[in-house]
Automatic annotation (TrEMBL), chains A, B:
Gene field: Lhpp
GO molecular function list: inorganic diphosphate phosphatase activity; metal ion binding; phosphatase activity
The protein's required cofactors: Mg(2+)
Reaction equation(s) it catalyzes: diphosphate + H2O = 2 phosphate + H(+)
UniProt-listed Enzyme Commission number(s): 3.6.1.1
PANTHER family listed in its UniProt record: 4-NITROPHENYLPHOSPHATASE-RELATED (PTHR19288), PHOSPHOLYSINE PHOSPHOHISTIDINE INORGANIC PYROPHOSPHATE PHOSPHATASE (PTHR19288:SF44)
UniProt name for this protein: Phospholysine phosphohistidine inorganic pyrophosphate phosphatase
Amino acid sequence: SLRRIKASGLKLQLCTNETQATRESFVRKLRALGFEVSAGEVTAPAPAACRLLRERGLRPHLLVHHDLVPEFAEVDKTNPNCVVLGDAAENFTYANLNEAFRFLIGMEKPVLISLGKGRYYKETDGLKLDVGAYMKALEYACDVQAEVVGKPAKSFFESALAELGVPAEQAIMIGDDIVNDVGGAQQCGMRALQVRTGKYR
Amino acid sequence: SLRRIKASGLKLQLCTNETQATRESFVRKLRALGFEVSAGEVTAPAPAACRLLRERGLRPHLLVHHDLVPEFAEVDKTNPNCVVLGDAAENFTYANLNEAFRFLIGMEKPVLISLGKGRYYKETDGLKLDVGAYMKALEYACDVQAEVVGKPAKSFFESALAELGVPAEQAIMIGDDIVNDVGGAQQCGMRALQVRTGKYR
């Protein structure tokens, strides 16, 4: 169906909440499955966060997955004035959480940017706490509210529209998640279509 | 002043939120400082939690500090139907947090008991996230509300009164913390007195 959309001349942008790897490796996985997409056709939380950091002159301390670090290669990370939190998985150690907390609590006005707010997810070896749980821990400790990048945040869909160069009224979001995909897109003025595949129940 | 209170014939119960060690080791520390107290004169979150577990037939999975584990020696921990969370410090690993989460999410009705709800505290090597932050993470992931044992919980002061064998009207709470000590005791029908020492500012 991706091929048919492209063949018809429609512009396409994939919106994913994947934060355990760079867009490049995400695209490699898709290509291995036979989908012809490029990194530029993917909107993901990390690049959206980079854009936000640039716009606001923020220098992050990163608590993210090892494999995601390259997405932030171009970003100035000296003398941090915000914390960017992703699904860090094995990097969610006691020491790393305390370190991120100390950066936040040491700021005059703590800025916490979270690459999602999922509660948990399933892997082959069982359920895992997702980034949202750690976001809540830091929010509580520092008495701040995190800014969430990624679906269903409005700014995330605006990012995707900017990449497409298309206004919201001329775009349609197709997804399997009623909150993250359909709800988020509608809040942004887009039409949305829910497919009954993937996580649809 | 402890000696004068005891000499006057008044009954005494120390109420602490200490959860990184057993009452026995807490008392050893106090005795080394010259205070003549016994473990029976200390009300602490872990023993209060044990009482609550017994009353409700709960079998805990423990995520607590190594040094606190002996407090739960008598408690049946097979086939857990609740999680008891304390300031586990180095035990707050990614694996241990996921394990506690899996126990909770696997319960028909998750029961999370937290030995406090502090945000953070200071140690010689810097600020550390306290049990409250991890409590919020698990609360969010499992969509439950933790039951907090320890000051300022009403049940905690009731526990202390039960140990004393004295009704609330005949007891007075003396402490340096306006919320945890004074507020908690007053909610329980006790009078309270704030001293301008310790953490008082």
